[in-house]
Amino acid sequence: MIFVTGATGLVGSHVILKLAQQKKPFKALKRSFSSLEICRKIFQYYNLEKSFEKINWIDGDLNNISSLEQGMKGCDLLLHCAAIVSFSSSDIEDLKKVNIEGTSNLMNVALSLGIKKVGYVSSVASLGRNTTDKIVDEQCFFTATNNESNYSLSKYFSEQEVWRASAEGLDVVIINPSIILGPGDWNKGSSQIFQKIYNGLKFYTSGSSGYVDVIDVAESLLQLLFSDVKNERFIINGANLKYRDCFDRIAKALGKPKAKIRVTPFLKEIAWRIELVKSYITGKKPLLTKETANSSMRSSSYSTDKIKHALNFKFTDIEVTIDKYAKWFISDQL
Q: Can you tell me the distance from the alpha carbon of 219 to that of 179, in angstroms, rounded to the nearest whole number?
């Protein structure tokens, strides 16, 4: 039996989708107030409505140890997909509470219950992206700098909790995905990229990053969990792209105009402040914050040699990914 955290989120929904397709028994952790709408839509998209209705949902919380102990009874494998993704300064305490303390609690319960193996969804944000000018690989270890976001720090320290559990005898595998593209609530996380472009994004930056299909994230995680690989980390990245190239491809897929205004360092400082003011007025969290603005000017590329060698893993073509999810978001708005 497999215990899955974050099962209503973007990655977690696709992980339990894969488990359902493979007819693997699992329990799915959710908070009592979590919406199942997006997860249901994903199962419907793959014609697995009946499987969705059979999901064994467990109400609990990463910071409620007794709920974890009760939920994980009878399980021998753990997939930890739950996390808060935020670049807003107002979410610092939540990032610490959920990403770091929650992961620590989960690892402690896993150790106490004798869980055999853990698969953890980390992020390239926990790697040393700011300490190298070369392609980032699994050996680029994190060093805290003034350029690191609070999200990066939270993912780094949460990953350390997994390594700590490994040192205490728990077999673990960790994946470090780049920017994840997939269907979901386009008001949250990386899905906001589609929303902003659909609504007429006019600006692009000179930076670059990696992008990956959520299906590849879920598939790589499960392949590693059921393999003999243990106590290793793997970058999961489908393509390295300039932000402008990625935005242009999404705009084309959505049938929207391409962004034409290049953001300069001066304009960047103005833009995130304007978005901050808008967020105060609308009550919505901004996609562009000081942290994301700074990140968007940075160029990072990621190596996938390790995962390709370990599993002979093949990534989905990024244009196929963008076209697929553009259609999803368009149909969801109709």
A: 16
Q: CB count, 10 Å around CB of 260? A: 9
Q: SS3 for 47-114, per residue?
A: CCHHHHHCCEEEECCCCCHHHHHHHCCCCCEEEECCCCCCCCHHHHHHHHHHHHHHHHHHHHHHHHHC
* 123 DSSP β-pair partners: none
pLDDT in tens, 200-251: 888 888 889 999 999 999 999 999 999 999 999 999 999 999 999 999 999 9
Q: Which amino acid is at 270?
A: I
In the numeric block, which tokens belong to residue 49?
């409505």
Say if residues 57 and 67 touch (Cβ distance below 8 Å): no
pTM over 0.90: yes
Q: Which residue has the tokens 């409620």?
A: 64
Strand ranges inside the chain, DSSP E: 2-5, 26-30, 56-59, 77-80, 117-121, 171-177, 179-181, 203-204, 208-213, 232-236, 239-242, 261-262
Alpha-carbon distance values, 184 to 63, 243, 272 (Å) = 25, 21, 25
| Cβ–Cβ < 8 Å for 136, 302 | yes
> What's the mean per-residue pLDDT of the chain?
90
Structural domains of the chain ordered from first start: 2-333 (3.40.50.720)
Place of tokens 């368009």: 330
CA separation for the pair 82, 70 (Å, rounded): 18
- Token representation of residue 196: 């902003």
Tokens 């990621």 appear where? Answer: 302
pLDDT band with cut points at 50, 70 and 90 for residue 291? low
Distance, in Å, from the CA atom of 311 to the CA atom of 314, rounded to the nearest integer, reads: 9
Residue with tokens 């990072």: 300
Q: How many Å separate Cα 104 from the centre of its chain?
A: 19
The answer to whether 251 and 266 are in contact (CB under 8 A) is no
If DSSP codes are grouped into helix, strand and coil, which group holds residue 229? coil
**Where residue 288 falls among pLDDT bands split at 50, 70, 90?**
low
